[in-house]
Specification:
Blueprint (H helix, E strand, L loop, with lengths): L23 H12 L12 H18 L9 H8 L3 H5 L5 H26 L7 H18 L1 H9 L7 H18 L8 H24 L11 H15 L11
Helix pairs in contact: 2-3, 2-7, 5-8, 6-9, 6-10, 8-9, 9-10
């Protein structure tokens, strides 16, 4: 789901187009995040029209980044696609950098909500390992797919600190995964379970990052079979027996 409009991921076919429809729910969530101080780069406003314009520009930026780099993304492109003006842009964001950071913060705010839902669903955990692995993969892959452009730009500028917000979000996700998955790994000593869960996540996330940056195949990020194969990989690793060192023969 699109974290801004509650629709499908942004279309990236053209630079121009009508501003996306912004739901009342999306506006309410944006107001809440502003009130909680989660979007400090967005110049504060309480007017619904101004909030709609800001969200339309963010959605336009997300769509445009699906097919171009952050360097090639211009404020003029964003405004043309969003159906607004450059003056309106700078009335809400001090710079393109502040605009991009706001896109990142919106995604991490959405991820917090998704993670809270995952935690609540498994608060009294009756799910088996298969179900947990499937949901872990589904949540992670859907985040990469719906935010491909923003994630790719963040990775490409990681040396400039652009990946830090997503790293912090990933840290929160990993801690929850350890709490939910480790109790199912009864074939392992307790002290080894955390590492097994963390490395399973690292392998999955690394596969997705490689797909975002290099798209080497055989499976692309958008391929439906990717979920199935990642579930197979994660579950096989989590349930793999502990390798014991053989004693030399006397």
């Amino acid at each position: 789901m699109n974290p801004l409009t509650d629709d499908a991921p942004p279309e990236a076919d053209s630079d121009a187009g009508a501003a996306p429809a912004i739901s009342e729910e999306a506006l309410a969530r944006l107001r809440e995040w502003i009130d909680r101080g989660l979007l400090p780069e967005l110049i504060p406003t309480r007017q619904a029209r101004s909030l709609r314009t800001a969200l339309a520009m963010i959605e336009a930026g997300r769509a445009l980044l699906m097919t171009r780099s952050l360097e090639d993304l211009s404020v003029e492109m964003v405004c043309q696609r969003a159906g607004t003006t450059v003056g309106a842009f700078y009335g809400r964001f001090e710079s393109k950098h502040a605009f991009f950071i706001t896109m990142q913060r919106l995604q991490t705010a959405r991820s917090r909500e998704t993670l809270a839902g995952f935690t609540q669903r498994h608060e009294v955990d009756h799910a088996d390992l298969d179900a947990l692995c499937e949901e872990m993969v589904e949540l992670t892959v859907s985040t990469f797919r719906s935010n491909l452009g923003v994630l790719r730009a963040s990775l490409q500028h990681s040396k400039e600190g652009m990946w830090e917000l997503f790293k912090q979000s990933g840290d929160r996700y990993r801690s929850v995964l350890v709490a939910k998955l480790a109790p199912h790994l009864k074939h392992l000593p307790v002290k080894e379970r955390e590492l097994r869960v963390l490395f399973a996540y690292q392998a999955m996330a690394g596969t997705l990052v490689h797909a975002v940056l290099n798209d080497p195949g055989p499976l692309k990020l958008e391929d439906a079979a990717l979920n199935q194969e990642l579930v197979r990989m994660v579950k096989s690793y989590l349930t793999a027996p502990r390798k014991t060192r053989r004693r030399p023969a006397p």
